[in-house]
Amino acid sequence: MKKIYLLLFLLGTFNSYAQHVNDSIETIRVYCELVGYNPNVLGIGNKVKVQVDFGEEHNFWGNDGRDILVDEKGKDIKFNSMVEAMNFMGEHGWRYQDSYVVTVSGQNVIHWLLCKELRVGEDIKGDLKQRRNKKKKDTPEEKAEKEKFNDIY
User: Fold this and answer.
1) Dihedral pair phi/psi, residue 130, rounded to 5°
2) Do 128 and 119 form a contact (C-beta atoms < 8 A)?
3) Which letter does DSSP use for residue 34 in this model?
4) CA 143 – CA 136 distance, rounded (Å)
5) What percent of the chain has pLDDT over 90?
6) 73-105: b or e for each residue (b if 16 or more CB lie within 10 Å)?
7) Which of 5-14, 46-55, 83-92, 132-141 has the lowest mean pLDDT?
8) Residue 146, CB-side half-sphere exposure with 13 Å CA sphere
9) How many Å apart are CA 135 and CA 143, to the nearest integer?
10) Distance CA 98, CA 153 (A)
């Protein structure tokens, strides 16, 4: 019996060391804003025009539609309501945070603030595309560069 107690005492006094692996990936919280309004002048119609503000630069002269979401073909994504737009954003990992309404020229403009956790260095837009991301016309230098490769192939 003394041998068992001695064995337990010796095992209990040994310091054990283990490697600790830090699985946590550094993330940051980012925000965007859904802005929705009725595009018809008289407020008639059931479609809502939705823009997404990721905090990028805006046109100095006003709204030029660069923040409107587009599909893979570059066509505007149309939403029936702000809830449909939120469901769309939710499918892309965004969560509702807060909302408010501003009335501009008698028309309600709905603002919804959304948030998302991203890994450091990850693109805030993910796979979402906006009009501002459409391919612009090639400059003459870019056209000349492409023609060089067309001659090779």
Assistant:
1) -125, 170
2) no
3) E
4) 12
5) 27
6) eeeeeebeebeebbebbeeeebeeeeeeeeeee
7) 132-141
8) 7
9) 14
10) 54
